[in-house]
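Practice problem: predict the structure.
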Amino acid sequence: MKFKAFFTLIRRIKAIKYFLRDPSVSKIKKFIIIFGIIYLVSPIDLIPAPVLGFSIIDDLTLWGIILAYLSSELDKYEVSSKNMADILKEKKKFKGKTVIESEGREVKDSEEDNKQ
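Answer:
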């Protein structure tokens, strides 16, 4: 049971790359991820190192909050990396265009003549 949660966490972390590349994701959600990355690598922490002996606790807490907040969005990107790369290429291909899905039917020449 504990391993399932750990593997879900790892899959969500891997999904961040595809989440950031998707043009349909809001800029605010992308900013949250980028802020978390900057906070993780910056030497400034809310809990200073001398207080608890190590300052990684606030980094892990912040990332726990970010991953919990964006969990439903990140779960959409948990497919294999090859498939997600193909999906993002298709989205980029149709960016800014309206795609209408419909069902078509074959019209015979005699039907076209009757309509005119």
